[in-house]
Please model this.
Amino acid sequence: MHMGDALVSPAVGVGMMIATAGVTTYSVKKLKYDENIEEKIPLMGVMGAFVFAAQMINITIPGTGSSGHIAGGILLSAILGPYAAFLTMTSILVIQALLFGDGGLLALGCNIINMGFFSCIIGYKLIYSKVVSKGYSKKRIFTGSVLAATVALQLGSLGVVLQTLSSGITELPFSTFVSFMQPIHLVIGIGEGIITAVILDFLWQKRPDLLERVGEKEKIKISNKKVVNVLLVSSLVLGGFLSWAASSNPDGLEWSMLKTSGIEELETKGEVYDVISNIQEKTAILMDYNFKIDKPSEILEKLGTSVSGITGVTLTIGVFLGIGSLVERRKKLKIRIE
Model:
């Protein structure tokens, strides 16, 4: 559900970026009071890498000609908490846009709100955490995951439609576009909810200390080297190799655009779009998760996908290693001053 720049006007793009900056600032402030933040940062890195890799794997939706992948917001939130999850999702989407051309730079704020805010803040806080607030159980985890993921994706897909409407994209009339976007993302949302529930139920059975303590205030140890290493290896396998099996069918957004307008991608027109496109062309060293080669062989195409997956995983972890280093330096400086 990564929107391209052609779907948003400059005004809408800037407006959504301002909204994103507001939510990001609020999330950073909330994390200042998180007693587990130093232990949580490495987990943010490997969980971000895991979700990045998982998003590379589109799964065919039978009978539709479309495909979908997990967004990962509910999964991140259930482990990291909503604000750390939102910042992690933001980092993933920035890396995807800059390095891989997945989602436009002008549309980056839209994508962060649609995929991050609606899942991590709305879906998790207002639905999942309420369902499991009386204690974890298989039934509550399953119910909370499916409801939260489904509602979050419905809100996100509606956000896409409203943003294109506000941008005056006449090729995608509201009534037709929404009639395709909502049903296909309902199916994808239910699928993501089930996958999320299976993962969270497994963690609840094996490592309940990794799940956020909903309604509890005591400090919990949330990470260790073994967990980080397992997630790192899993991310590399997902992004580096299992991504070969990703469906070639258009995702839910592309499919909806195709059904509505007859084309999967719209053309951008205007100086602003040209400037942003040129910037992204230079930063996206692995555009569309592959080498910039015309008509690559099958082997080169698979190699490009593997390199992209491993690069994305490494960069995502690197971002949080850098953040962790800054937090540690700030703490040491504060101790010296005191």
In short: The mean pLDDT is 91. Residues 5-337 form a domain with the Arp2/3 complex 21 kDa subunit ARPC3 fold (CATH 1.10.1760.20).
